[in-house]
Amino acid sequence: xxxxxxxxxxxxxxxxxxxxxxxxxxxxxxxxxxxxxxxxxxxxxxxxxxxxxxxxxxxxxxxxxxxxx
Length: 69
What we know:
This protein is of the alpha+beta class. It has helices at residues 8-15, 19-27, 49-68, and strands at residues 5-6, 34-37, 43-48.
């Protein structure tokens, strides 16, 4: 997964969240995007798989920390 570029829908399915939540992660800087232009006004956004993996690891660490407390 780490070397691939993933669609917003794929990221949402991996994280088990809505597409809107994925866009929120992007807005908050939790995930970066690669914009693959397909025309003048149209873009196709992809998320690096490594970013998704890093987000999951950060979230897992927070959960483990709260459980240990």
